[in-house]
Input
Amino acid sequence: MKKMFSLLVVALMAATATFAQSAAELAKQQAELRAIHMKMLNAKPTKAAKKQAKELKKEGWTVPAGEATIEQQITRSQLYGEEYINDEEGNATKRFIMQTAVQTGGTYNAAYAAARSSAQVELAALLKTQIAAAMQSKLDNAQSSAISATTIDKFNQRSRAIVDEALTNAISVLTIYRRLQNNNFEVQVRLAFDKRELQARLKRNLQRELEQEGDQLDSTVQDVICTKF
Output
């Protein structure tokens, strides 16, 4: 009985330490993101951004009241797309996953909410597909003893809690709209997702939803994010 209690205490301490580490990783990433965001806000519009903005304006696109100009937003989007980090193996990879969506609605707020939701849903679907495929590939090739058919089934069943929840902290880098002939609003949004923060959030969610099996899927998720996006 004492031995079982000791093992339970050790397991609880390990889990607590793991979650504390995940929380610390997220806090670190958020601090880095705030610094990057401030740098982007102060950036001057590029020539390429000005040219693209001119074309968008001809097509009727504009920005909501109080938002940065189209030129500034395009520049910000370009700069986020040019940020690089090194993965665990030292290879350069883009820091942010960029996802764009366009939706229409009877009001601006409805169209904006639909576009933002669409961008997150589309990226979530891609992530789920790629992670599940990577897991299946490792299972088929016997590359990991940690992955079984049961593990893949559990991931698919709980992928909403694992993946969708990890995408809730997106950075809006572009928001423009135009009025259509039927008076509806068409809104285009571009969201940036930090790979480091996304990995930390997915790691935390995998540990919560899949427990011990989730601990051993970290490298699979990291490979997918760094090589597929």
About this structure: DSSP finds eight helices and five strands in the chain. Confidence is low (pLDDT under 50) at residues 1-19.
